[in-house]
Amino acid sequence: MNNSSNNNSCNVLNTLPILSQSILIVLLLLSASILPAYPAVPEPRNPEECPSIKIVGKPSPCEIEQQQEISKEVKFVNLYFGDPNSIINGFPAKVEVAPGDGVATLIAVMANSGAFELTGLRAWLYLPVGFEAYGRGENEPAFDTYDFTVARGGTFYFEFPVRVRENVALGIHQAWMRVEYYRSNDVGLHFRNFNVEFMLTGRSIMDASVESNVIIPGKDNLVRISIFNAGSAPASGVTATLVSTGSLLNTGNSVWSLGSIEAGASKRIDLMLYANPNLANTLQGIQINLDYKDSYGQHRSAVMNLNLLVRGSTSSADLRIVSDTYIIESIRKNRLSITISNLGDESARAVEVTVNTMALSSTPLSIVDGDGYYKLGDIMAGASKRIELNIFASSDANNKTFDIPVRITYLDATGGLHSVERSISVYALGSASIRMYDLSITYIGNEPNLTGYLLNEGSDTAFFTGVEMLEDKLKPVGGAQYLGDLLVNSPLPFNIPIDGSAVDAPGLYSVRVKVNYKDALRNAHELVLEGKVYYSPARVSAMGSGSSSSNPSLLPSLGIQPTVSALLIGVAGAALAGYIAWRRHSRRRSRLEETRM
User: Fold this and answer.
1) So where does this one cross the membrane (predicted)?
2) What's the CA gap between 230 and 228, in Å, rounded?
3) More confident residue, 531 or 565
4) Going by C-beta distance under 8 Å and a sequence separation of 6 or more, which residues neighbour residue 419?
5) What CATH number does domain 206-310 carry, 2.40.30.10, 1.10.1740.110, 2.40.340.10, 2.60.40.10?
6) Which CATH superfamily is domain 67-200 in?
7) What is the pLDDT of residue 537?
8) CATH superfamily of this structure's domain 319-429
9) Whether the predicted pLDDT of 232 surpasses 70
10) 177-202: per-residue pLDDT in tens?
11) pLDDT at site 544
């Protein structure tokens, strides 16, 4: 500007008179000395701050701003989308942004190339169509400040949050930026305007898929994986690495270099995987790492987790288990006959049956005569096999139901291992164990009776117990007798009338007594108990004869034993003595009362 003014002055001097030239020279000198004396004024934040009325003798603030832009110590370095939360080498890391991503941050990198420290920095970024300042009004510029001092030769950056519209195009976009600042030794406000540009790169999104996720056990399987770029930006230097195959065995390559994959394009890698037959009908996972460079050349990585199904047989075996009985008795060993049947349409090979003894340990049941493990071999479709299981139930199991857990394992036609859980339900029924003892012949009403006791040595009550004497040499008179409930360890007496005329010689005779009772489930039980008893037939003559030909006294013939007769005589004597004493006492009292009167 100063050079152009001097040239114009020279042209005027050549055309004007000497006096006019002198006046112009004086005015030019005055203007050169006056203009630097005006202090710098703040840049107006909007055009309304520029005065519409010209003040004579004072320059307009807007005119002074144009003069201040001569200062060029603030330099523009770069404008890109970045992540303020990820700082690399002092600046936010570059990130890929695609149309429709929403709010992203534009990073404006600046530098101080002047001879002074800068402070009070602030900037406005005017955005092109398709972008708008986040948190600002419509058509307003994005705004940010830098609150630290920038040393000579130092760099700094502004963060502008912007919203990226859906329909904006990829590529380079033009913007306009205004920066205000102060020099550390100057009170005047300086500014610079920049025409800047930034790139909307799009975003590379790497993904993978399996063309066929079913593999066959017992052989090598070719598994084809498609690596594709589902984003809007290219990915370069793509490398795929097979990191994990789970329980599968990798028999092929593990690393593939794929080069660049454009947006929407894909490349294929082939894996060779072996599946053990034991993995049939299971889901196996593999993991692939993808390493690549994004639009900025920055290293990126992605982890792909894919699932493969190890196919089993198309048909299946169906193994079921059933016991011949569901009732076991407590306090004794019970033998269960268990049948394993294949109700499916395929053979089950190498069948093994295991009783879960660990689960049984917390119950009153236990396995005896074995460990509960059985190898059955193959069971064809529709066939069955039988095993014997010996179970002991303690008294704590009385009248309770238990499940005996059983695991059945087998191989299918392809070698796939299968395991099924089954259970056998049993009811532990308490039992009665009855014996007969202390048999004898007693006379009741001058009739002989078989008397004795029943003792229940079992684990549960014998309900509704009854007895009946079976005919032998000694013959019963009448039918069965009801005794009631026979409790455990509580003797219960019985007496059964017999026909005294059936035998005529004394001796030891065999007797059989049938006992009937019901258990806790009201199931009827019957047993015959045998014993021996001594019997001596008694003959009694007519009452008027006063003698008996076979008995030393009348009492035995009347059905009264000697010990019982002695007891009766003693009781009668005591009663007679008591009566006599009472009569004497009554007479003395009567006489005493008569004398008093």
Assistant:
1) 12-38, 564-582
2) 6
3) 531
4) 407, 408, 409
5) 2.60.40.10
6) Immunoglobulins (2.60.40.10)
7) 84
8) Immunoglobulins (2.60.40.10)
9) yes
10) 999 999 988 778 999 999 999 999 99
11) 36
